[in-house]
Amino acid sequence: MATRWESDSLGQVELPADALYGAHSARARDNFLLSGQGAAAELVAAFAQVKVACARTNAELGYLAPDVADAVTRAARELADGQWRDAIVVDALQGGAGTSLNMNVNEVLANRAEELLGGRRGEYRRVHPIDHVNLHQSTNDTYPTALKVAAIGLLRRLHIDISELQMAFQRKEGEFAHVVKIGRTEMQDACPMSMAAAFSAWAEALSRDRWRVSKCEERLRVVNLGGTAIGTGMTAPREYIFAVTERLREETGLGLARAENLVDATQNADVFVEVSGILKAHAVNLLKISADLRLLSSGPRAGLSELSLPAVQVGSSIMPGKVNPVICEAAAQAAMQVIANDAAITLAAQSGQLELNAFLPLVAHALLGSLTLLIRANRMFRERCVEGIQVNEDVCRTHVETSLSTVTALVPLVGYDVAAAVAKQAQAEGRSIADVVRERQLLSDEALAQALSPAAMTALGFRGKPRDPH
Q1: Of 9, 163, 305, 316, which residue is the catalytic one?
Q2: At what angle do helices 99-116 and 41-60 cross, to 10 degrees?
Q3: pTM for the full model?
Q4: Which domains does the chain have, with CATH numbers?
Q5: Which of 21, 200, 294, 337 could form a disulfide with 25 if both were Cys (CB 3.0 to 4.6 A apart)?
Q6: How many CA atoms does the CB half-sphere of 60 hold within 13 Å?
């Protein structure tokens, strides 16, 4: 294989002759053999957009020759569109606050731009990774800016998927509106409710998640691009600092704004913790909902079996006919990973020191990973589980008819103590609540039927004449 040699301040590095990356990328690739995963595709694309904005600004202000700026811009847009991804060789986790990813992008764009201008990869005669591609920039302003751009794009996708999952639950709410079931607290029978009410509660939780996700985008729109090393803008012209965010806004179509305090925006990562907290809240709801569906579908003969989940695959290698709630379990595991990622983001953000947080690569890996997981989990959960849920009406009816919890509906008519005595007798004698009430002649048949009707037991609040307190 043909090779070429490149030099940096540490010495020479041998590279494949046709490699788009350079010496810094090769050293970082070999140094950081950690996660085995490259930087997220969304982060690389966002980094390329940042480089377009910087090249355009430098060209407009006369700091970069037009042909060089055009070549860098073309190369960056190619990278943003998914080309040359195999040339991004550094691990997602790396020391140096993201310098290795920044330099990997710089080298790829420089070599591709050099090639577009008629040169050869590795020459850097026409386009240099630092002098041209990284002009008036630092890792410390480009990396967090790219991370915010990438996160906003994923947040918008997540918002759509949460909305669609919410609507799937709402459709089931309408479909099951006529079904009465037993509500349970602390795993014990509590009182009757409609199946629609159960689905409406899950939908409402997702509605809150959808709103939170849409609002937290605002936290990411403030960027520190132009702040260079520590937020003071050293080595960057003042006119560049005031213009570059506007160019990035044009390139991305996002409502980005330059931070008023660039030093703060460079050293502090609390905004990522805040956004991760919103994702954790959504993960908690996914966990709760998936656990509820697993429980309500348990059985099918020896469990609650009030719901039937779609059968998507054989459940056991030894037990014939067994089908497991694997989609719920997978969604739950994705949610658990998001909660774990939130802990990692918290630790990384608090570990920044003085004017820089060196652990942003972990923040990026965990935050973008959480967003991607939640997007996929919401879609999978909706398509392969929620949309196909069926209710077992006969089971629900039997549970209601045999449960002692229906006695709660009689409390306004006979009082708590009498109702408790009825429940105790029914339990001891293996009889229904209605039978005991009739035996004790506590209510007329008409009043009893009305009190225990599906409409009365699932209505909002008590309707009718209460008992005489005297």
Answers
A1: 316
A2: 60
A3: 0.92
A4: 3-135 (1.10.275.10), 142-393 (1.20.200.10), 404-458 (1.10.40.30)
A5: 21
A6: 16
